[in-house]
Design a protein that fits this description.
By secondary structure, the protein is mainly β. It is built from no helices and 46 strands. It is flat.
Length: 564
């Protein structure tokens, strides 16, 4: 998402560019010929690093093949032809120019008339070098679409963008019309739309349970239903479809479906029906493996275990057993449950009641070909673990916490303790949300109270099952915020600091372990002790960023940054 930011003198200025869009259309056969006009309109452009100049462009939307009258079902190509190009920015620090073959355009064409909506197109990354203020000569974006309805459709250029790669970064410049844009081209399409419904799947080969996009033309209004059939289009079953978001608008069918996760590998046909109309499209489905997870996966005899399984056949009984080292199923441990419509199963009441258990299995009824297992260790339970990121924050700051071996599906509370783990208080910290999953994984965030002084503390979390863990956390008087926490070498990072001395000069450096790197930027803090500055990170061994006052080097703050 693009944002407008204040610009420091050493930042990368994004290159202004443009992108094109194409549309889908249909027309009533009342116009004697296609109408075409070159459209001249003003745009306002933005990118994440600068304020590109507003300006005018002239665009012609050229449709191929060129006809006075089209027919429903015709496939047409739309080319966005630049008649007046956008300008490169008036100043381009760092790179000084728009490099050759660095920029490609994308965008949308607005459709009105019998067919409505937007249509996206894109051009190749081909452009001559452009100096500041010169024309940015871009490729012509192209796309195609199918006419599905008789009537009149108008094609209008809309938002366009350019994507420019410079100094290892790809930057989008997005340009929006300032005022309503005139129609560029109108087509005439003969009807009525009497063709049979069409259907296609994208992708045509996919894993069972995954999402598939369906599209088609010539559909009557109504609610689509979906079935999965064998390769001959027979034996069609609706219960093999787990999700369906298909809709019909102006004769065009679109949306997504998911099959259930337990469909075997094979060739199939998807059938869509709306009222009396139907169509089939061939697909290939690859089976996905059944899975099992245990929480906890170790403990003394008598430990209660929550078993979670996925990708089983829906709505059938699933048996759970303990198994010994010889592979024997231990009948005394049997429990069972019923799988859900999506093939998932949760058995919350398995008890590891025998010392000979080495694994726990799930299978569909007595069909051992469906058996899946996971190891279980009889022994002392593993202690709960806890970590906080970042490990340094400030009063009022929020950190992310994570850990393992907590009470499954339980809840946790947080407190802030002294550095030795004593004097813990829930009043000095707030949490939320903190969640513990079925596998005992803890996740969430905590916020340090605004009245906590700087220093080293221990963060403590506890759950209802008797587990607790501590992790060190440092509360700084000063703190840093970055616009990104990772990037490749030669990445510009916007550093914002808080809590420094009024009008203090602050040095910002990269960190490699405990040592400063030669990457540097300097800034004056304002009267409130805040500053904002860009720094170019060039060192591949950078692990963080540090900002310290020039005349009081102990007045500092650090924050992690990862070079990828």
């Amino acid at each position: 998402m693009s944002r407008i930011r204040r610009i420091a003198s050493r930042r990368l200025v994004a290159i202004a560019a443009a992108a094109a869009v194409a549309g889908t259309g249909a027309l009533v056969a009342i116009a004697p010929s296609a109408q075409a006009d070159t459209v001249d309109y003003a745009t306002h452009c933005t990118n994440p690093y600068s304020n590109p100049p507003d300006g005018n462009v002239k665009i012609d939307l050229v449709v191929t093949p060129a006809k006075s009258t089209y027919q429903v079902g015709d496939v047409v190509s739309v080319e966005w032809q630049w008649k007046l190009y956008p300008k490169a920015p008036p100043s381009i620090p760092v790179v000084g120019k728009v490099p050759k073959d660095s920029t490609y355009p994308v965008g949308t064409v607005k459709l009105t008339g019998a067919q409505t909506g937007n249509f996206a197109i894109q051009g190749p990354q081909i452009n001559p070098e452009a100096l500041p203020g010169q024309d940015l000569i871009l490729s012509n974006p192209v796309g195609s679409f199918t006419l599905t309805q008789a009537g009149q459709v108008s094609l209008t250029p809309d938002i366009y963008s350019t994507f420019t790669t410079a100094v290892g970064q790809k930057v989008e410049t997005k340009c929006s019309p300032i005022n309503p844009v005139a129609v560029s081209r109108t087509l005439t399409v003969d009807g009525p739309s009497t063709g049979a419904p069409t259907l296609s799947a994208n992708p045509g080969e996919f894993n069972a349970g995954s999402q598939v996009a369906l599209s088609g033309a010539n559909w009557a209004a109504g609610t689509p239903s979906v079935e999965l059939c064998d390769a001959n289009g027979a034996a069609c079953l609706a219960n093999r479809i787990a999700a369906n978001s298909l809709v019909v608008a102006n004769g065009a069918l679109s949306g997504n479906i998911n099959t259930v996760a337990t469909v075997p590998t094979g060739n199939y046909k998807l059938k869509v029906k709306v009222g009396a109309g139907e169509a089939l499209t061939p697909v290939k489905i690859n089976a996905v493996a059944r899975t099992i997870s245990l929480s906890p996966n170790r403990g003394p005899v008598g430990t209660g275990v929550t078993i979670t399984g996925k990708n089983f056949n829906p709505n059938i009984y699933i048996l759970a057993y303990g198994r010994d080292a010889a592979g024997n199923l231990l009948d005394d441990t049997l429990v069972y449950g019923q799988s859900a419509a999506d093939g998932s199963i949760v058995i919350p009441d398995f008890v590891a009641s025998l010392g000979s258990i080495t694994s726990i299995i799930l299978m569909e009824g007595t069909d051992e070909t469906t058996l899946v297992s996971a190891p279980f260790t009889i022994g002392a339970a593993l202690p709960a673990t806890l970590s906080a990121s970042p490990a340094s924050t400030h009063a009022g700051g929020t950190v992310t916490v994570s850990g393992n071996n907590w009470t499954p599906n339980g809840s946790a509370t947080a407190s802030l303790c002294a550095a030795d783990g004593s004097a813990c208080s829930t009043a000095r910290i707030s949490s939320g949300p903190l969640t513990i999953a079925a596998d005992g994984a803890l996740a969430g965030n905590v916020t340090i109270a605004g009245n906590v002084g700087e220093g080293t503390y221990k963060l403590k979390l506890s759950d209802g099952g008797g587990n607790s863990a501590l992790t060190a956390i440092t509360v700084q008087r000063r703190w840093l915020e970055l616009d990104k926490t990772s990037g490749s070498p030669c990445t510009f990072v916007l550093v914002t600091g808080h809590g420094y001395g009024s009008l203090a000069w602050v040095n910002v450096n990269g960190l490699a372990g405990d040592s400063k790197t030669s990457d540097w930027a300097g800034a004056w803090a304002n009267a409130n002790g805040d500053f904002s500055i860009w720094i170019l990170i060039t060192k591949s061994n950078t692990t963080g960023i540090i900002a310290s006052e020039t005349f009081h080097s102990d007045r500092l703050a650090t924050t992690p940054f990862k070079v990828t």
